[in-house]
Design brief:
Elements lengths: L3 E3 L26 E4 L3 E2 L3 E10 L2 E14 L7 E10 H6 L4 E7 L4 E15 L2 E8 L26 E2 L10 E3 L8 H7 L8 H16 L8 E6 L4 H8 L3 E6 L6 H8 L9 E6 L1 H4 L4 H13 L1 E12 L6 H13 L3 E2 L2 E2 L9 E7 L5 E2 L1
Parallel strand pairs: 10-17, 11-17, 12-13, 12-14, 14-15
Antiparallel strand pairs: 1-9, 2-8, 3-8, 4-7, 4-9, 5-6, 5-8, 7-19, 11-18, 15-18, 16-18
């Protein structure tokens, strides 16, 4: 299917967009309106809507992008066929394409809409909207859903829990001395050929426990290990039958630059069932850098894949900063494991953020 380019303001050409400099000159009846294409016919079969911004600058705002399906004789005539939300400041910092997969059916027409709710301070030079086929994705292993993972991903009833972090049921959590007294710590530490100090051994045990609990430490699972130095976890994962690619991320390097140097072709650096990055990759960083790194990791995963980023807490990244990271992950449609802070206020400790990549809408 040849891509169709849609006029983002085709439905209401005269109406002014909530994102400044876009749309027509008339004030919209809906203060949340950003764009709304006309309804168009789409060839029957798997398709994807793609939305990107030109020169977006944003301080605040969250956009909800939806696909609407229209049947003239339907009851109701219009139904929602896909939705994804995104933080405009994140899109402004690192321009990405919002993609909403859907299945077009005979006799229906489709429109793509965007609305911003709450505060919004943003402007852009343009919006590009297109609909293309995705028949070829079945032949692309990197876009096939990950087959690994025993637990069904569900959004937690609460983003933050006051329960103490434990290795017996690992979520997004930080180091605590109590975890080093658990049976799982001793069992997994015994597998490490070079464990290092107690906190380093906890970090290795935590990574292994997450991979184990979430069904990734399985024969045939393809993983990417990111570290600034030797990583004993990769050897344990290989012994379990995982296919592990290791990438050394040197001082001042980004994951993107390290992977570009490591892999001969870009397609070799995507399509993983899980990715983990040790605390040596980012060291001390703020929430914005951590979130951008997670977004890079998620772009390398298969749908449904698992990302684990370990950061160091401290004045630069406190409990509020960790909360902002998880909110940003949720805004992109991915699922973050519940936060259990423990004693992150007591100083700098490694803290693991566990994220499951969306199986549906993606932002790349």
């Amino acid at each position: 299917m040849t891509a169709q380019t849609l006029d983002p303001f085709g439905y209401w050409p005269a109406k002014r967009s909530r994102i400044r400099s876009l749309g027509g000159r008339e004030k919209s009846d809906d203060a949340n309106y950003v764009f709304h294409t006309s309804y168009v016919s789409v060839p029957t079969g798997p398709a994807v809507a793609e939305i990107s911004f030109d020169d977006l600058v944003a301080d605040t705002g969250m956009i909800a992008v939806r696909i609407f399906q229209h049947f003239p004789a339907g009851k109701p005539a219009v139904t929602e066929r896909g939705k994804v939300t995104a933080l405009l400041p994140s899109l402004a910092r690192a321009p990405r394409t919002i993609k909403l997969p859907f299945d077009a059916v005979a006799g229906a027409t489709y429109a793509i809409t965007g609305y911003v709710f709450g505060e919004c301070d943003a402007h852009a030079h343009g919006i590009a909207v297109a609909i293309a086929g995705r028949q070829g994705e079945r032949d692309d292993p990197s876009r096939a859903r990950s087959l690994f993972g025993r637990l069904k991903a569900r959004r937690a009833s609460a983003m933050i829990s006051s329960d103490s972090p434990q290795l017996a049921w690992p979520v997004s959590q930080g180091f605590t001395p109590d975890q080093t007294r658990e049976p799982d710590f001793h069992r997994l530490s015994a597998l490490l050929t070079n464990g290092g100090a107690v906190i380093e051994r906890w970090e290795s045990a935590y990574i292994l426990r997450v991979l184990e609990q979430y069904g990734r430490l399985e024969a045939g699972a393809r993983g990417l290990a990111l570290s600034a130095g030797p990583d004993p976890v990769a050897a344990v994962a290989q012994d379990a039958g995982c296919i592990i690619e290791t990438v050394a991320v040197g001082s001042g390097a980004t994951i993107e630059s390290a992977c570009a140097a490591r892999f001969r072709a870009p397609e070799e650096g995507v399509g993983f069932d899980f990715i983990y990055a040790r605390s040596t990759v980012l060291g001390s960083c703020g929430s914005a850098q951590a979130l951008a790194t997670i977004e890079d990791m998620l772009a390398r995963l298969r749908p449904g894949g698992l990302a684990l980023l370990i950061v160091n807490t401290g004045p630069h990244l406190d409990q509020h900063g960790l909360n902002r990271i998880v909110l940003g992950i949720a805004a992109f449609g991915h699922i973050a494991a519940q936060l259990r802070h423990g004693d992150t206020a007591g100083g700098s400790v490694p803290f693991g953020l566990v994220v499951r990549s969306s199986t549906e809408n993606v932002i790349t």
